[in-house]
Amino acid sequence: MVKSITANPQGQFSVEDYAVFTIMLGISTAIGVYFGFFQKKKNQTTEEYLLGGRKMKTFPIAISLIASQLSGVSIMSVPAEMYSYGAQYWIIAPTMILITMIINYIFVPVFYNNHITNCYQYLEDRFSPAVKKFVTFTYVLNIYLILPIFIFIPALAFSQVSGINIHLINGIVCGVCIFYTMLGGIKAVVWTDVVQGLIMFVSCFLVVVIGVAKIGGLSEVLDRAAAGNRLEIFDMTLDATTRQTFWTASVGNLFLWTGYLGLSQSCVQRIVSVPSMSHARAALWIFCAGFSVIMTLNCFTGIVIFAKYFDCDPIKVGLVQKADKLLPFFVQDVVGNLKGMPGVFISCVFSAGLSTMSANLNSLAGLIYEDYIRPFKLFKHTDASANTTMKVLILVSGVYCIAMGLIVEQFGHILQMVVTIASVTQGAVMGIFCLGMLWPWANKHGALWGSASSVIVMSWIIAGAQIAISNKEISYPPKPTSVDGCYEYGYNVTANDFPTLEAPQDEAEFSIYNISFVWYSTVGTFMVFLVGIPVSYFTGSQDLRNFRPKLISPLVHWLLPEEVLQNDFSLKAENEKLNPEPIKEWTFTAHEEEKYKERLGVIEQTL
């Protein structure tokens, strides 16, 4: 009797699975209704809508950061990465410790000391409005390019296990996300993230445990993975063209994730919504621990998938079209007989996608309103008009994401595509903030030319690389998989039926287009310094005698003249005389705000 490679083929989503999935969407909707209607009196102001009144609790903010950073792309594509290329990507988990340290001790003090709520406002305070407008534009463009991918991936998983049209699913779930984000603001986003984050953890854990048990135990999984060369982590190859090595996974992701987590408005908006800097740092350390645990589970899931199909690759025999669809296929195979479990998994993937989408929609609406609508004074600014405008922006952005699903469907390897798109501007953003916070002599000319050069150069490199990939001049063949055991499942195939894929061997000199996509953010960051520092020098470096120390990280205050630091300390002492009582929360009286504007010459941005 011929065995079946899976006892639970596509399209076997049960009533229990639909019930679990519906409950998850129902909870998210209910949270939006609660904060949109039942807490309406407390949610009148724009600050309350975007920042929760800066009174959000540490733990929910930490869970919200975890849920939004581990998008549907991570849940679906990281296991595919492990299956195809091995465990090298896991290095991002321990690297997150260093990333969190950098954010906590370089970026967070500057944001809190300058009362920043919109992280791009810092660029105006440090350099000029032109620098802020340029970087804000690149951020908005980047989010609009990448956001449709984040929500389309969960729809891909649902379609794989249910057989329902992928665009219908995409439209329904995007509609739910738009609804609760519009109604509830940041509070709804954070608390739905908490629920969705717990769903993600439970789902990943159960899938891994049940998968390992069905394969025959942890030792069997590791033996099969080792035999397939999937456990190599410390590949110390010093070759920038290799897709993943220890150096790309650690150093490359260090620059990518530091910018993405610490300098993205959707993240900064939540980091500064807690009462104090100590709360923000605590939230980030909790995030670090939770992220590392779930990312480890996610990576190990890919290893378990390889162990399950180590002798009969579902992609080669046509059961799965591409690696990004392997996880839902595996879930339906391994736990499909347990009523409701596929529904739990799909809820996990959608939770990840919804968390990322809602966080970005909320921050994007606030950013567009403040920078592109309010300055034109098209109508009288009130909290009510601002909130209504931002809700319309969320609606329009959500409809755009649904429509873009038609294009995203044509993409190849999703993880590589996401990193590539993000890297067009991510290096410039990382570079300009680091230039401002770590190099006090940088001026507005150096910042603008440095960031613009980074975006131009990275666009050129990435465009050239994509052309080379389309011409088959660059490819990243996956590690070998086997079909030796497929005859047991009724597939009459052998290894000879599938050509061996090899990367093109080019004996020509090194080409910048050939570098691994993981290095793009690193190259972009250094471009800002390579251009920004010389331009600042030749156009007249920042005069440190008229410099505000709060605008650079405390770690490099030793670079400033002693008299500048003393002036800053005397200003603090005078402020303490004016306000002898300790400030328990981050709030300002009218008198304090007036003094702040008068002394620092900065019009604080009120969201």
UniProtKB/TrEMBL annotation:
Keywords: Cell membrane, Ion transport, Membrane, Sodium, Sodium transport, Transmembrane, Transmembrane helix, Transport. It is found in: Cell membrane. One of its GO terms (cellular component) is plasma membrane. InterPro entries: Na/Glc_symporter_sf, Na/solute_symporter, Sodium:Solute_Symporter_SSF. The chain crosses the membrane at residues 18-38, 59-78, 90-113, 134-158, 164-183, 195-213, 245-263, 284-307, 344-369, 390-408, 414-439, 446-469, 517-540. Coiled coil: none annotated. The keyword Transmembrane applies. GO terms for molecular function: symporter activity. It comes from the Eukaryota. GO terms for biological process: sodium ion transport. The keyword Protease does not apply. It is a multi-pass membrane protein. It holds the Pfam family SSF. Belongs to the sodium:solute symporter (SSF) (TC 2.A.21) family. This is Sodium/solute symporter.
